[in-house]
Amino acid sequence: MENQVPSDVAQKKLIAGILGILLGSLGIHKFVLGYHVEGIIMLLVSLLTCGLAGTVMGIVRLIEGIIYLTTPDDRFYETYIVNKRGWF
After folding, report:
1. Contact 21, 66 (CB under 8 A)
2. CA Rg value for the chain
3. How far is the C-alpha of 52 from the C-alpha of 48, rounded, in Å?
4. Mind listing the pLDDT tens digit for each residue in 45-79?
């Protein structure tokens, strides 16, 4: 039996994708998806290195934002909501 995709998944995916692209080096998109540990890691890496590692986090955020926005809703739900895949 196939999982039913909740109606708010498309909205959550859109918000996480946009925040990932715009503010991702602060880990905001991770918090939207409920990945608190990953969000804190991204936030601390960016802040504790005075933004120097923010470039690396910026690349990660851009890739993740694009992946979130281009992944079909059903696969996004299965991968990031059900299976809790925290990175890429």
Report:
1. yes
2. 13
3. 9
4. 888 888 788 778 778 889 999 999 999 999 999 99
The whole-angstrom distance between residue 70's C-alpha and the CA centroid of its chain comes to 13
pTM across the whole model: 0.84
Q: What is the DSSP string of 3-70?
A: PPPPTTHHHHHHHHHHHHHHHGGGTHHHHHTT-HHHHHHHHHHHHHTTTTTHHHHHHHHHHHHHHHHH
User: What is the predicted pLDDT for the residue at 1?
Assistant: 41
DSSP 2: P
Terminal CA-CA length for the chain: 27
Q: In one letter, which amino acid is 55?
A: T
Sign of the Cα torsion 62, 59, 61, 64 reads positive
